[in-house]
Each structure stands twice: as structure tokens, then as C-alpha cells.
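User: Before I run my own analysis I want an independent prediction to cross-check against. Here's the chain; please return only the C-alpha cells and, at the end, one sentence I can use as a sanity check.
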Amino acid sequence: SPFGQGGQHPSGVRMGGRGGGRSALAVADTRRFRDLRKDLVLDTRQMGTALRRLRKLQRKGVIEELDLDGTVDETARNCGDLEIVMRPPRKNDVRMLLLLDVGGSMDPHAETVSKLFSAAYQHGGFKELESYYFHNCVYSKVYE
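Assistant: C-alpha cells:
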């Protein structure tokens, strides 16, 4: 077969196994990830940027904001007579709760977790953010 295992076609696609003709375009079952950058440091700003992607801006509440695109569309549909369209403003409605283990096995990650706390408070932009920590396992209480 020109595309199956052992095929000799120049544009054949190998789906695992050993390559025979050295002509496969892709090996679907091999994932070889190596961390090639040792100088890359995850800082508070980058974490904040990642956390901002969790926001969900929704249009809720009183209709008080001009919808420019809607106004242009409705005016065009109305043969040029001005038709103003309003909409509610976008608001972030995400509430986040951070529960973090700060003891024992997490000691090597203490600096990264501290940056995560800082990023969540400075850059997160959540409607509400609460953070609590515990040591190893949640027993009877967590700490603020």
C-alpha cells in the first residue's frame, strides 16, 4: 500500500512502527517534547496575562451603552434614517477561589505559588477573588 506501514510511495504516511524507506511525512504516535530553554522564567506579568483569559465578559444589566455596529446596521436597514441601538455594558462575572497547599512537598514551588497569588490579585480582573491556603491536606479548616 502506498500509504500504510512499509509503503514505498514518496509521499507515504507512516502510522507507527519502523520506517523502511525513510519517506514518511509524519509519525502520528510519537511525541518527543524537550524543554530546550533553561533561561525562560515565568513572571507575574505572564501569569496575569494567562489569568485574564479566564474572564468571561457578559452583557448584563441596564441598557446604557451605544452599540455602534448595531446602530450602523439598523440605520442601513432603515434606508438611512438614524436608528440608535443601545446595549448593556460588558461586565466580568467570574468569581475565583484559590485553594493552595503551602507545606511539605510544595516547598520547591513556593516562589511560583507566591507569584500566582500576586498575579491573581494584581492582573486577574475577576469580579471576586478569595484565596485560602492549607498545609498538606484540608482537615478541619483553611487559612486566609
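Sanity check: The chain has three domains: 1-33, 36-55+94-144, 57-92.
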